[in-house]
Amino acid sequence: MNISSIPILTIVTFLPLAGAVLIAALPRSAARPVALGTALLTWVVSLILLIGYLPRPDFQFVETLDWIPLFGIQYKLGIDGLSLILVVLTTTLMWVSILASFRPIQERIKEYMISFLILEVGMIGVFVALDTFLFYIFFEIVLVPMYLIIGIWGGANRIYATIKFVLYTLVGSLLMLVAILATAFAFQAQTGSWAGAFDLTVLRETRFDPGLQVFAFLAFFMAFAIKVPMFPFHTWLPDAHVEAPTAGSVLLAGVLLKLGGYGFIRYAVPFYPDAAQTFAPLIIVLSLIAIIYGAIVALVQPDLKKLVAYSSVSHMGFVTLGIFVFTEQGLQGAILQMVNHGLITGGLFLLVGVIYERTHDRTIARMGGLAGATPVYAAVFGFFVFASVGLPGLSGFVGEFLTLVGAFDFSPLVAAIATFVMILAAGYLLWMFQRVATGDLSDFLRGLGHHLTDMRPVEVLTLAPLAALVVALGLFPGLVLDLIGGSVGSVLDGAATAAPIRFALWP
């Protein structure tokens, strides 16, 4: 059967919602297996998409249905290489996260699994929506289940963390909504018609007035910069990570941060290329600050989870840097870094969760000697640490290398600064691993006695697919680069014809 003849994007987007409804109707004991089965089925459907996708620059599997015809708003879905690879990343991390939650989560299991599946609906919807109003709806849907996941199943300070997360995100997304509406009204004024006023494929071919570009780009920038998060909008992230349950941290780092990078590539730069060129130098400076700041603050963190959280700020700085240098290698590196960060940091958060479940403590100073007591755990932890450092042969290296090559084309000084910070990254990660894994078993860990056990088979199963993908993409980065070639080309073609906007307040 021809895949394009069935609404496969609607299926992959709303299958988790069907699973959530089913869990609500079934007894509590069925929540875990139904949630895992739904997540695995969604993952299989996303792999069918991957198999059926042809690496071309256009959108494929497009589904269109008039929603609010008066304003040209449509239910329109479609994927290209960029959205496809992020959908597969989302569906992979979702079943891993649900499986990792089986043992730690013992209260309100039905509500927990329903929240995760609704979160998956929002995340996949963001990546496949081709209508800006529909994109905004999915972008907001993501907020509600993550609010519940942190606020109900989080740590002691969860209420503060979750309210801070919601307020930051809500401010950015409401500004984005204003920009979406302003862009639609400007399109209608230019063309005399509402048809296509919210259509991504139409809007990216339309050149808007410089004044609108500046203010709309800044509104989109706020929404996506908070989501990435870029310096100085990052302060919600460490709190949210520390208080979130392990699986919540995996999806927060692995997928939710990517909504920001995806939004820059898919919407902000193609819609407002002149404004993107105007503000690119400022964004590059902020990206470098994030890379440096995240690394330095991670270096002094006493908490394992907070260290990984600040490393995310640093690593995502490479993503925004790669996007706004407007070179092919830079943008390829940024997209690859988004995928790599999802796999590697997701794995690190799972590993922090493994040790926290045994010790109920994340203080680095209280650890030590885990390599002798839990050799399998230490080996897997070491693997993901080296992947995060950017060891050649693992996926972290290729993304950062391409970003640095693209940055060098833009400015050797920018590339030199970013390269220096990679040394800092090696410093804080390897120093952390040395303190946790090597030496004699600490008094604190010795006091746990038989509770300090090595990794269980289920825990190995959650990390094995991530480790396999880290190796596969490290050795064969073309698996991703071939898929995203068309997406990269279309973004850069639009940016190449743009020119910085000159106005009174900008020299």
Topology:
Blueprint: H1 8-25, H2 31-52, E1 60-68, E2 73-79, H3 81-100, H4 109-128, H5 132-141, H6 143-153, H7 158-191, H8 200-203, H9 210-227, H10 236-243, H11 246-271, H12 273-299, H13 304-324, H14 328-359, H15 370-373, H16 375-389, H17 395-410, H18 412-437, H19 443-446, H20 457-475, H21 478-496
Antiparallel strand pairs: 1-2
Characteristic terms for this protein:
507 residues, mainly alpha, 2 strands, 74% helix, globular
Describe the overall structure.
- The chain is mainly alpha-helical.
- It has a domain at 280-501.
- 74% of the residues lie in helices and 3% in strands.
- It contains 21 helices and 2 strands.
- Strands 1-2 form a two-stranded antiparallel ribbon.
- The radius of gyration is 22 Å and the shape is globular.
- Across the major sheet, the strand order is 1-2
- Helix/strand/pairing category: mainly alpha
Poorly predicted tracts of residues: none
Order of helices and strands: HHEEHHHHHHHHHHHHHHHHHHH
Tally the helices: 21
Average pLDDT score: 87
- Beta-strand content: under 5%
Proportion of residues in helical segments: over 70%
Main sheet characteristics? 2 strands, antiparallel
Gyration radius over CA: 22 Å
Overall 3D form: globular
Distance between the termini: 59 Å
Number of strands: 2
Task: Please summarize what this structure is.
The chain has 507 residues and is mostly helical. Helices cover 74% and strands 3% of the residues. The chain has a domain at 280-501.
